[in-house]
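Fold Annotation — chain and its backbone

Encoding — discrete vocabulary of local shapes
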Amino acid sequence: VHRSINILPMQMRILCENIQKEVAAKFPESTHTCIGGFLFLRFINPAITTPESRGLAAAPPSQEARRVLVLVTKTLQNLANGVKFGSKEAHMVQLNDFIESNQQKINKYFDDVCAIESTSATSSTVPPTLIPTNVVDVSLAAVHKQMNMVLPKLRTALVEGTTGASSSSS
């Protein structure tokens, strides 16, 4: 995970930076867990447990493999949250050494994700997200269709003015 920072989209890093700043203002002790909760709970762990839904595997893993993947994500989520396993999941307590030995590394990763120069976060040099051509084409067609449907109403409203529009709606 910590080697993937360069492929994390800048928009995601900017979002993480903003989340961290807002949380730090009210809960300074939770700056790492908020980023861990956001990245791992919403993006990384779902990709691990359901790789087929993210295009990472052609078919779903077997039931046994899925169970192992769930255990991996539980461990990663505890690491991200800075929480050791307890009596609730006694069979996982043996992984507490892993959590302890990697806590500083994951916290540094969270700090690195959020460490964006202020000029890059506000400038127009943020690389655009690449959108597949077919998605752009379908989106433009949908916008065009909506504009064609709304344009006559818009013309009428502009010609009649706001008084004509409000009197017709009452």
Q: What stands out?
A: The helical segments are 10-26, 31-49, 63-81, 96-114, 118-122, 133-168. The two ends are 59 Å apart (CA to CA).
